[in-house]
């Protein structure tokens, strides 16, 4: 297949860590350092941005998602309007959108292949809605339940049906069976496949016959091929290798899938009739895992490959698609664009790190014409419209790569406040959770608020982060205490400061979940660098939390127990050596050595980091006379959703960093925020004593 040239757009700035231990920088490295400095200088030269209200960063886009019909003629979207979620349908060729439902509990939509039905998926059911005036709208499938049913989406080959996976109870004396059903718009169920092991993916030939399926077998996935009514193994994916089925060919002899079998990066591959793999597309830049693929609805064959770990890029997989993708990329340069393909029109989802939510655009491949579908959908905060954020006031995420002290390239972003001398600006490391996750080219509320308040913000994608291939994800080798992974974060801050980007004498560290754990490590073990730490829902003893969490039903990979995934990622919760090492390097064990102030947020119903572990850490700090502030939302889970708590948390971050690092002062809290603080602020450190 012809490989197209990568799109011309702002790409990764690859840098060398100019430390003596890394050796001298070469000419290319120095050129890349100059490029980073130039990008930072351009950002800092922008007019000083006005202080944007806190709630603007916390607000959510009213647009909950948009789905293109297979024929490309219509687009449907879900939109929150006050307390109601509404359903709209608009013609792609032009014309006003029509509100189909004034209120729905649907969380996702799917079009039937014939485009005459919309399937509304809520936590409890799938509702088939007739959209061509044919009548017959009804609930066709229950979801959830003891024999849990989950939607697999619309059947890609049958005119009007959905696919549903039924899973057995977690605890039962009955034999465990997994079943996949096809359910039509009358609610009629047809059993497609039944297995004694968990089914993960299915793919069909053009006649609607099952051609391939994937099931879990202990610690691996096996892709099976259907031949003469019998299933035979075609591909095995071991040690957390990924192999997600996308579609089968019309004759059912081959299948396309996302996989990293035989490759470090996740790529688009074809499983041939002889069970060999052929690479269809892999990131030409050699850096990113494949994120999404647009299929031709008529042939179920791939048309566009999309990568967006650090810098979004789309690649056409046919000569026609290459021309259209180039036109779309030229229309929205330096944006994170995702493309859905229909028979007559394409749907363009436009995103950016400077914009909340997304904008929708129609593209006509026959004429090359573009049309805005929705404009700015607006944002809501506590069921009311929120203040708009002008993109010109937000900091651009500048992607870069530096070389760590052991020689490994480490990726990340830096956000630079407008109108501020970056050499004199305080710097904050904002660490992502997981740890097996990553910062992408999306809007980050905390990072953008901090940049707006005058801080340089560093978002590290330390080793162990996802999206950069298996080797990068596994490079942490379980060293998630005060070790190599933490050193990546520390060295990234020092690297930026050495380039005149941020004042290392005024550095802080913030994060949630694993990011909160890293923040506690930073103020405990690197107090000479980090003068303040903010930790939301943090595991102060990562080993203990891993042992506790591994017993839950949560899974990193479908069908594979959390404990197994952790073992394969060198964090075996049952290994005494792992537990002992993490314990020896834990913030809780070294509470007495803390010399910097910390702010903690805990959720009373946290299903991942039990509140008792956070309270135990806070009590240990208090017993040693340390400067600790504790905010507790008694009803919150690991992901805090209460808008009052979220606003209180941002206010406390603003105030603490302002007093310790000298960034912008927070706006005074209103009566509602003061009431939340009076109720939920359990410990008041020196920054909140007044």
Automatic annotation (TrEMBL):
Residues 441-649 form the Peptidase S9 prolyl oligopeptidase catalytic domain. The keyword Signal applies. InterPro entries: 6-blade_b-propeller_TolB-like, AB_hydrolase_fold, Peptidase_S9_cat, Peptidase_S9A. Keywords: Hydrolase, Signal. Residues 1-27 form the signal peptide. GO terms for biological process: proteolysis. One of its GO terms (molecular function) is serine-type endopeptidase activity. PANTHER family: DIPEPTIDYL PEPTIDASE FAMILY MEMBER 6 (PTHR42776:SF27), SERINE PEPTIDASE S9 FAMILY MEMBER (PTHR42776). This is Peptidase S9. The lineage of its organism: Bacteria, Pseudomonadati, Pseudomonadota, Gammaproteobacteria, Lysobacterales.
């Amino acid at each position: 297949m012809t490989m197209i040239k990568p799109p011309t757009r702002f790409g990764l700035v690859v840098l060398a860590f100019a430390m003596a231990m890394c050796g001298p920088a070469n000419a290319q490295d120095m050129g890349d350092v100059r490029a980073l400095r130039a990008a930072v200088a351009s950002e800092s030269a922008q007019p000083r941005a006005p202080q944007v209200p806190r709630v603007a960063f916390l607000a959510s886009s009213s647009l909950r998602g948009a789905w293109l019909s297979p024929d490309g003629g219509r687009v449907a979207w879900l939109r929150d309007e006050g307390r109601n979620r509404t359903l709209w349908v608009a013609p792609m060729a032009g014309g006003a959108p029509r509100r189909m439902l004034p209120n729905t509990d649907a969380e996702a939509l799917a079009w039937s292949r014939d485009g005459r039905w919309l399937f509304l998926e809520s936590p409890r059911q799938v509702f088939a809605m007739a959209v061509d005036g044919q009548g017959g709208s009804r609930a066709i499938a229950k979801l959830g339940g003891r024999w849990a049913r989950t939607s697999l989406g619309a059947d890609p080959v049958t005119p009007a049906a959905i696919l549903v996976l039924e899973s057995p109870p977690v605890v039962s004396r009955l034999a465990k069976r997994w079943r996949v059903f096809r359910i039509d718009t009358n609610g009629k169920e047809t059993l497609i496949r039944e297995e004694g092991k968990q089914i993960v993916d299915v793919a069909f030939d053009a006649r609607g016959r099952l051609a391939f399926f994937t099931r879990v077998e202990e610690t691996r996935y096996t892709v099976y091929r259907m031949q003469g009514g019998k299933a035979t193994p075609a591909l095995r994916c071991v040690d957390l290798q990924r192999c997600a089925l996308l579609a089968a060919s019309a004759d059912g002899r081959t299948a396309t899938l996302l996989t990293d079998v035989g490759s470090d990066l996740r790529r688009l591959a074809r499983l041939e009739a002889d069970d060999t793999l052929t690479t269809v597309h892999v990131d030409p830049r050699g850096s990113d895992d494949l994120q999404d693929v647009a299929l031709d609805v008529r042939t179920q064959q791939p048309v566009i490959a999309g990568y967006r770990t650090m810098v979004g890029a789309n690649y056409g997989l046919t000569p026609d698609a290459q021309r259209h993708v180039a036109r779309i990329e030229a229309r929205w340069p330096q944006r994170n664009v995702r493309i859905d393909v229909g028979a007559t029109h394409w749907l363009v989802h436009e995103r950016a790190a400077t914009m909340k939510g997304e904008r929708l655009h129609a593209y006509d491949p026959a004429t090359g014409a573009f049309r805005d579908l929705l404009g700015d959908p607006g944002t809501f905060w506590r069921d009311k419209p929120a203040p708009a954020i002008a993109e010109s006031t937000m900091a651009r995420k500048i992607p870069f790569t530096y070389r760590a002290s052991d020689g490994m390239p480490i990726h990340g972003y830096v956000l630079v406040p407008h109108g501020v001398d970056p050499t004199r600006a305080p710097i904050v490391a904002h660490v992502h959770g997981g740890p097996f996750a990553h910062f992408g080219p999306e809007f980050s509320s905390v990072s953008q608020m901090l940049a707006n308040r005058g801080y340089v913000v560093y978002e590290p994608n330390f080793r162990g982060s996802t999206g950069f291939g298996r080797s990068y994800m596994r490079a942490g080798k379980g060293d998630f205490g005060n070790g190599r992974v933490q050193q990546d974060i520390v060295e990234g801050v020092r690297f930026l400061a050495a380039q005149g980007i941020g004042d290392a004498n005024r550095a802080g560290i913030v994060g949630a979940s694993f990011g909160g754990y890293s923040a506690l490590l930073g103020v405990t073990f690197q107090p000479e660098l980090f003068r303040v730490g903010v930790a939301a829902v943090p595991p102060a003893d990562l080993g203990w939390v891993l042992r506790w969490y591994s017993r839950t039903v949560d899974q990193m990979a479908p069908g594979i127990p959390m404990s197994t995934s952790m073992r394969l990622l060198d964090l075996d919760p049952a290994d005494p050596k792992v537990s002992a090492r993490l314990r020896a390097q834990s913030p809780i064990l070294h509470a007495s050595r803390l010399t910097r102030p910390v702010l903690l947020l805990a959720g009373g119903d946290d299903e991942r980091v039990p509140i008792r572990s956070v309270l135990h850490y806070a009590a240990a700090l208090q017993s040693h006379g340390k400067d600790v502030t504790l905010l507790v939302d008694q009803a919150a889970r690991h992901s805090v959703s209460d808008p009052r708590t979220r606003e209180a948390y941002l206010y406390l971050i603003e105030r603490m960093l302002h007093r310790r690092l000298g960034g912008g002062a927070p706006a005074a809290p209103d009566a509602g925020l003061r009431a939340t603080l009076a109720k939920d602020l359990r410990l008041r450190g020196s920054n909140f004593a007044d």
